[in-house]
Amino acid sequence: MNNSKYSQEMREETAKFIFENGRYATSVAEEANIRVKDNKKNH
Predict the structure, then answer these.
(1) E strand or H helix at 25
(2) Closest to 5 in 3D by CA, of 25, 39, 34, 42
(3) Which residues contact 24 (CB under 8 A, 6 or more apart)?
(4) Best label site of 10, 20, 25, 43, fewest CB within 10 Å?
(5) Which of 43, 2, 6 lies closest to 28, judged by CA?
(6) What is the pLDDT of residues 7-24, one digit of tens each?
(7) What is the end-to-end Cα distance of the chain in Å, rounded?
(8) How far is residue 10's CA from residue 4's CA, in Å, rounded to a whole number?
């Protein structure tokens, strides 16, 4: 079971858009007002 609030179709279409347009996922998310988690670890 998938707990994502985004459908599989939306995720696939978004990934396709990113790859076809040579864009960074973070910039696409920013334009779509999707919050991006910061997974960087602070050392």
Answers:
(1) helix 25-31
(2) 34
(3) 18
(4) 43
(5) 6
(6) 999 889 988 988 999 988
(7) 34
(8) 11
